[in-house]
């Protein structure tokens, strides 16, 4: 049971001698039910992330670009893992003569090694942004070169993504035989251990400072809690700040899980189909964590009512704008109930 790659008949690269050990796929992992679950979770992550981004654009509470970057990275990741599905090349039967074009398999293989570092780095950028603003607001000590650092954390994920993609592509072209559909039948990868270890190693290195910044955020909030509680920010603004910080910290639990998985991938090449399901759950959890924010749910519910013709009211009848700034450095909205009473 396995999957054959369609190599071009005149492909000279097929004769290139492999410089690293090529490990064959473990076809005993092929289960059609797990393939369906894996791809379903990936599609939920893609659609959910796109939907959350669109809804957030309609919200009065403006998010920082690092927040959008984080969700966009899961769109790229889920799309990468679903390429065989989009191309109609998913083998649920496990037939030995099922074929996948070499170019498609090589492209997906390179993408899936580049996607995890992309997601990890965008998460680092989002956590760093929260730390920058919370430190500046609570400790009254502006971060030097803040604008430069912000641009770096926005661009770095894609530079890293491109670099690892090219690295995996080079390994695949230097040893075409190593590019194959995994034994689980879920996606293409390389039979060489090096691309996977580079990807897993980068993820582990990136997620370590994520944990450090999250600890610093908690320490800063605890140390300056009285300042934060008595600040000029409105009640809704403080709730928005705490909500975002709480969600980031909760999602970081799964970041620790991802760190453990990355280390496991670093030392093994056959990790089993069931572990792929755990990996596919991470983008779904990210969507549920960040799409369930109150203002986004309100936009969705109001949009639904307007679409059905059940209401002609504005999306935010009880919300007014304010010039205050949240921890994320963006304008926030204030509910009318939080405003002081008008003079009689």
UniProtKB/TrEMBL annotation:
**Cross-referenced SUPFAM superfamilies, in alphabetical order?**
Family A G protein-coupled receptor-like (SSF81321)
- Where does the source fall among the domains of life? Eukaryota
Q: Which residues cross the membrane?
A: 34-55, 67-90, 110-132, 152-174, 194-219, 248-267, 273-291
Q: Which UniProt keywords apply?
A: Membrane, Transmembrane, Transmembrane helix
Q: What is this protein called?
A: Uncharacterized protein
């Amino acid at each position: 049971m396995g999957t054959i790659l369609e190599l071009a008949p005149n492909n000279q690269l097929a004769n290139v001698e492999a410089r690293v050990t090529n490990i064959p796929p473990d076809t005993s992992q092929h289960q059609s039910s797990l393939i369906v679950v894996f791809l379903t979770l990936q599609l939920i992550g893609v659609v959910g992330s796109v939907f959350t981004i669109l809804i957030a654009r309609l919200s009065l509470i403006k998010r920082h670009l690092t927040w959008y970057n984080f969700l966009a990275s899961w769109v790229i990741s889920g799309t990468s893992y679903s390429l065989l599905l989009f191309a109609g090349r998913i083998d649920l039967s496990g037939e030995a003569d099922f074929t996948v074009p070499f170019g498609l398999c090589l492209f997906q293989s390179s993408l899936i090694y580049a996607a995890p570092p992309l997601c990890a780095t965008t998460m680092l950028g989002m956590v760093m942004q929260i730390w920058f603003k919370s430190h500046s607001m609570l400790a009254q000590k502006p971060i030097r070169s803040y604008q430069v650092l912000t641009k770096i954390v926005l661009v770095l994920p894609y530079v890293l993504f491109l670099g690892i993609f090219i690295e995996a592509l080079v390994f695949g072209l230097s040893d075409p035989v190593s590019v194959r559909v995994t034994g689980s039948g879920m996606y293409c990868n390389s039979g060489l251990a090096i691309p996977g270890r580079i990807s897993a190693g980068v993820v582990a290195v990136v997620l370590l400072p994520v944990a450090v910044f999250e600890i610093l955020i908690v320490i800063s909030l605890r140390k300056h809690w009285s300042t934060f509680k008595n600040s000029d920010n409105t009640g809704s603004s403080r709730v928005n700040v705490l909500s975002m910080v709480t969600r980031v910290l909760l999602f970081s639990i799964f970041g620790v899980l991802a760190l453990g998985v990355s280390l496991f991938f670093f030392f093994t090449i056959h990790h089993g189909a069931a572990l792929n399901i755990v990996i596919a759950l991470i983008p779904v959890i990210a969507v549920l964590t960040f799409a369930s924010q109150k203002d986004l749910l309100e936009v969705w519910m109001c949009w639904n009512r307007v679409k059905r013709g059940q209401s002609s009211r504005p999306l935010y009848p009880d919300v007014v704008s304010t010039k205050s700034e949240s921890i994320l450095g963006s304008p926030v909205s204030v509910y009318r109930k939080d405003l002081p009473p008008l003079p009689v």
